[in-house]
Design a protein that fits this description.
alpha/beta; Nucleotidyltransferase, domain 5; 2 domains; 5-stranded mixed β-sheet; 35% helix; globular; binds adenosine-5'-diphosphate; binds zinc ion
């Protein structure tokens, strides 16, 4: 029997991860390199994949990206402030070198799909995946479909209620005190004057962080009715944070969403990524698998 190899690209603003893997989410080989300008970076990507026989390639990319298949700029990274990457025709560039089906989506949608196929949401029909890191992003699979739209959802930038005792102005260059501006890793660092990892013994830091994240998660639950909520990213490495978020979500919803997942099984409903730090790259593999099947 011939093995099927799938190619996966997790494209981030600071690093690229490329992998070759299989249809069950297994990763056979992977490389990581710093994101440079597009031509240098693509050269490294092509070199890595050239020695493999690929059936499909999946790309989970930083954004914003154009996901509209009828658009002339489908498969582009569009308006990013990241130097030289704006209007980059990602899918076209990969297609030049590999004549295989290509799956393309946001990094967080990819991670949501990976978690659904092989991770914490396995067996469900959908989930949301939220990363709380340098930025805040959320991907969603709703009843089997990756959530797109006019562009794609940007759930990290929603507006939430400020804590009355929080004097921090917020760090989002677009909205100042949106969710990302108040609760991303850099926002924590600016507010408290130290990196999140060095604030482990300051309970007030994590109370406030959970205050913001729980509002966001409660909103996502009310709007999307996700089957499972997965919280990843560097900031979620604080082990005290997830239980606080769960507790505050239940409190905020206050019994309104009458489902046992929320009323009695919150520990199984709001969870850490089953794929750990591999959610992104396995997600890209999942996009490749989907592209091959379609
Ligand atoms: P990125 O979002 O760039 O892909 P990460 O998900 O690793 O990368 O997020 C990086 C952010 O997470 C940084 O702001 C960093 O300070 C924060 N972070 C990393 N580890 C921890 C930790 N153990 N506790 C709290 N914050 C952390
Ligand atoms: Zn914002």
């Amino acid at each position: 029997m011939i093995s099927l190899y799938l190619g996966a690209i997790e494209a981030g603003g600071t690093k690229f991860v490329c992998a070759v893997g299989g249809e069950n989410g297994e990763v056979y080989e992977r490389v990581t390199f710093a994101t440079k300008n597009p031509s240098e970076t693509m050269e490294e990507v092509v070199q890595f994949f050239k020695s493999h026989k690929l059936k499909a390639i999946g790309i989970g990319s930083f954004g914003p990206v154009d996901l509209d298949r009828t658009s002339p700029t489908y498969g582009y990274i569009t308006s990013t402030p990241k130097l030289n990457w704006s209007n980059f025709p990602f899918v076209e560039e990969i297609k030049k070198h590999f004549n295989v089906p290509i799956g393309f989506d946001t990094d967080v949608n990819a991670a949501a799909l990976g978690e659904l196929l092989w991770g914490a949401a396995k067996g469900e029909t959908g989930c949301i995946y939220m990363t709380v890191g340098t930025g805040i992003g959320v991907g969603a699979v709703i009843e089997g479909e990756l959530l797109h739209g006019l562009s794609h959802p940007e759930m990290g930038h929603i507006l939430i209620r400020r804590h009355p005792d929080d004097p921090f102005a917020g760090s989002c260059p677009f909205h100042q005190d949106c969710l990302e501006g108040l609760a991303s890793g850099p926002a924590i660092e600016k507010r408290w004057g130290k990196k999140g990892a060095e604030l482990a013994d300051r309970p007030e830091v994590w109370e406030l962080e959970a205050f913001y994240l729980a509002q966001a998660v409660a909103n996502y639950i009310l709007i999307l009715s996700p089957r499972k909520v997965i919280l990843g990213g560097g900031v979620m490495k604080q082990p005290q944070l997830l239980p606080l978020v769960r507790q505050k979500v239940v409190h905020l919803l206050n019994g309104y969403v009458q489902h046992e997942a929320i009323l009695h099984r919150i520990d199984e409903y709001i969870v850490s990524p089953g794929l750990g730090d591999n959610a992104g790259i396995c997600g890209a593999l999942a996009l490749a698998k989907r592209a091959m099947e379609q």
